[in-house]
Amino acid sequence: MKETAVVDQSQRKITGKVSDNEGEPLPGVSVSVKGTRNATMTEVDGYYSLDGITHNNMLVFKYISMATQEITVGEKYVIDVVMQEDIIGLDEVTTVGYLTMKKRDLTVAVASISAEQIARIPSNTILSALTSVPGIRVNGNEIRIRGNRSIKADNGPLIILDGMPYYEPIESIDPNDVESIDILKDASSTSLYGSQGSNGVIIVSTKKGRKGKTTINYDAFAGWGVTNWHNFKPMNADQYIAFKREAYRAAGTWKDESDDSKIFLGNEIANMGNLDENWLDEFLGKNRFWTSHTLTIASGNDKTQYKVSFNYKNDENRTRPNGDNLLEGYKSDRYYLSTDLDHQVVDYLKVGISSRLYYYNGENKPNPFGGLLTMSPLTPIRNEDGTYNAIPTGDPYVKNPFLSTVDEYYNDKTEEWKAFIKAYAALDISEGLTFRTNFSYNPAFSARGYYYDERSNTYNDPRNVAGMHNNRKADMVWNNILNYKKTFGIHNIDVAGIYEIQDLTHTNTGASGKEQELPSYLWYNMGRLMDSKTLSSSFRRSQMISYVGRLQYTLMDKYMATVTFREDGASQLSKGNRWYFFPSFALAWRVSEEKFIKEIPFITNLKLRANYGITGNHSIDPYATLGTLYA
After folding, report:
1. Which residues lie across from 487 on neighbouring strands?
2. CB 108 within 8 A of CB 184
3. Interval 110-134 mean pLDDT
4. CA atoms within 13 A on the CB side of 91
5. d(CA 54, CA 74)
6. How far apart are CA 406 and CA 412, in angstroms?
7. How far apart, in whole angstroms, are the C-alpha atoms of residue 302 and residue 304?
8. CA-CA 20 to 30 A from 59: which of 231, 239, 551, 622?
9. What angle do CA 44, 47, 50 make, to 5 degrees?
């Protein structure tokens, strides 16, 4: 008798959890069935689920900066995965502090994201790419590297743009202009930035012009977003009526339909059987649409290289980027213009200048979501003429949550202009000895204007209110770097000395009041305000001087040691506490270079690392240490 093998082809659901090698859950990991379109992503807690899986399917797990894993399902119903860091590209150069080095020589914790990896996640800002890095939490515009470290001071990471501190939001950097992002996490690496490094450091390197023929590139992207309601389904009119009657029946208030007047509003009773309004669908049913257009021209020869890039991004979304109100109305236009010019003056001297210009125009609306949850399906959203029904319940204190979407009732707009201009000169003094001086100027200006009156759903004062706020900043940074690299047989040394000064100023003016003479004036004619006028202004200035030294020693390409020190003097701190010394050291052993490990074929790079460092946080407002006098 011939036996026939029976294979179970029944479909089933596969669940599991994805985490990193430290056991932390990884959100946003792509989980797909190989060769099909069946795919999902892990949730915030790292869990995922996939339906319609058979035993011979193969699951593919992908995550930026992690090695891709492929696992055959077999007879399993639960598949947990531990993602490992991608060890490809050990000879690639990464940025660590003020200098660069090969990844294979690192003694500190550095995570890197390449331009190709950023391009895999179409987004209007860099923030989406950062969510893929283990140890980084992104909530709206808020970035945290390995958690919070201060109760009152700033917990955001230091941003370094092309080697210089950048004190503007990271979303003002064009993601299409980014060559790489390096994130310094541990104390040994961040101590290189002393009093600024305690919250971690994000180093952004932008694209430059290269030697070769002239190239013109145009890149366009358009996205359409649809809200996934999951299991969130509001009650329809019949369900709402039955639910309310049963609730009040249990309370002893309702017995039959004759008691409806005790629990329903008059217009609700009138609309029974005639109206079934879905308030949430009116909001969540709106789709998101965003676009990006980038034009880049680049060229270069042996002496000179240049690049010019322009990018426009548009976003119409319910989601504000600040993370505070995840469903607020939000529209924005962003414009980026970047230029780079590098010139080899003589064999031993190279100079360059670059600029990053940014303009933002956006409008914000208050969050209607909470109010929509309380609206009855028996009350109409709009009047017969298509306008919003201002008082749908008949109660003047329960307004239509959509009223604030009307600009005539609620208007709040912001404009921002930012520039980052950098110039440098690099001098080759002798073999292995180089000197580089960098100077950056970072002016920024923002203007916000707002107007709203009692016709909006968030404001009940009969006197309208208007206000405007202007902010101006000017940051200047100058640093000088002396670097010596030399190889002596099996020994390699890398020594650097750095001197840096910073000067940061910030001025603010504002005006607000009530009873604008004509609503059409908005915030453009503040002199016509008739009540509760207020004026405000402020000035802040801080300065810092830093001395930095670093020594890295490598023996036989296997044993590495790094010693770093930094001393900062920050003007915003109190006298006697303005200067502090930040030392660190790190040791590393590339075990994979030992003979007894090389014989193991599946180990290509194994490194043991230990480090220690002291970092600080000087992120307090200038003059905060001074006494305050109120009159």
Report:
1. 492
2. yes
3. 74
4. 0
5. 8
6. 11
7. 6
8. 231
9. 125
pTM for the predicted model, two decimal places: 0.75
3-state SS class at 426: strand
Segment 332-377, tens digit of pLDDT: 889 999 999 999 999 999 999 999 999 999 888 888 888 888 899 9
Amino acid at 554: T
* R_g of the chain computed on alpha carbons: 30
In DSSP terms, 435 is beta-bridged to: 427, 482
12-19 and 81-82 strand pairing? parallel
Q: Is the pLDDT of residue 429 over 90?
A: yes
Encoded amino acid at 423, one letter: A
Confidence of residue 104 (pLDDT cuts 50, 70, 90): low
Beta strands of 109-247 (E only): which ranges?
110-114, 136-139, 142-145, 158-161, 164-165, 178-184, 201-206, 212-225
For residues 400 and 392, give the distance between their C-alpha atoms in angstroms, rounded to a whole number: 6
Q: Which amino acid is at 249?
A: R
* Weakest mean pLDDT among 50-59, 264-273, 362-371, 431-440: 362-371
- 């309380």: which residue's tokens? 374
What distance in Å separates the CA atoms of residue 391 and residue 410, rounded to the nearest whole number?
A: 17
Classify residue 119 as exposed, middle or buried by CB count within 10 Å of its CB (0-12, 13-18, 19+).
middle
Q: Which H or E run contains 42?
A: none
183 phi and psi angles, rounded to 5 deg: -115, 120
pLDDT at 436: 94
The residues pairing with 341 across neighbouring beta strands, listed in sequence order, are: 306, 353
The number of CA neighbours under 13 Å toward the Cβ of 195 is 22
Cα(504)–Cα(166) distance, rounded to whole angstroms? Answer: 11
Determine the length of the chain: 631
Whole-number pLDDT of residue 325? 36
| Core vs surface per residue 494-522: b (16+ CB within 10 A) or e | bbbebebebebbbeeeebbbbbbeeeebb
Contact status, residue 64 vs residue 2, Cβ threshold 8 Å = no
Where residue 6 falls among pLDDT bands split at 50, 70, 90?
Answer: very low
Of 19, 17, 18, 8, which Cα lies nearest the Cα of 57? 8
CA atoms of 583 and 603, how far apart (whole Å): 34
Give the C-alpha separation, 206 to 215, whole Å.
17
Q: Are strands 99-102 and 39-41 parallel, antiparallel or unpaired?
A: unpaired
Phi-psi region of 407 (alpha: psi -120 to 50; beta: other; left: phi over 0): alpha
Weakest-pLDDT range from 143-147, 164-168, 611-615:
143-147
Of 122, 375, 370, 95, nearest to 225 (Cα)?
A: 122
Tell me the backbone φ, ψ of residue 124, rounded to 5 degrees.
-85, -5
